[in-house]
Amino acid sequence: MVEPLSHDPITRLGLLGAGRMGGPIGRYLLAAGTPLTVYDPSEAAARALGELGATVAASPAAVAAAAQLVLAVVVDDAQVRDAIGACLETAQPGTVLAICASVRPDTCRELADAGRARGVEVIDCALVRGERGAEEGGLVLYCGGDPEAIAALEHACAPFTEAVVRVGGIGAGQVAKTANNILLWANIRADVEALRLAQALGVEPAALREAMAIGSGANRALADWGKHRLRWPHKDLEVALAIAAEAGVGLELVSRLPQLMEELTVDDLHQLI
Questions:
Q1: Which residues of the chain have pLDDT under 70?
Q2: Which CATH number does the domain 176-270 belong to among 2.30.30.60, 3.90.1150.10, 1.10.1040.10, 1.25.40.10?
Q3: Which of 139, 99, 102, 131 is nearest to 115 (CA)?
């Protein structure tokens, strides 16, 4: 019989993925003195954290065997299924497995069901603010799942987060991130057009941004102008449109955003600084 789930204070963390997002997360955890076991298919990426004090594991399963909380900072649904599936083979009852990739809510629910059968809590833990947030130790985590598991995660992940928010049940964190991404990319595109108009009419973009900061058109994307890397708009919007279609919700504005964002480059944004 599977032992009941328990969520004692988490002191041993595991990290699956040590790339653009996982690498900075690992560095903040190690700087805070957190015991960390890491796996990445790139030996160089894993070794970089190993040189800072992490234990480098040979597989996701080995990470799960050593950790109370595993952060799966991978790319997509397929990688999440592989990573969490491997972890479930070795994770002890009471372990928390956090899906940090941007994936479908139903993927989270399916894996949570599989975890529950083994006494393991699978939660979704969507990372918001991107690479810059990871590098600055200011990520926001939108979470879905067991409240006690998320509370334990919040304390353990404090070294690299600004906030951890439980939005609802399993999968809700992914829904919140999708909504966040819609607003981010819509704001960036609208900001570009507003700044281009102002520039064409003789108003410097910097002056307009300062004025807009105290106006009703203020938005975070405009406040952070010049820092955006435009790394994942297509993937984010593709996910949003797919789950909206399945839910029978029309997103007329969002349906045009992929093409509009594809036309933009980081240089376009820098020309409006």
A1: 1-8
A2: 1.10.1040.10
A3: 99
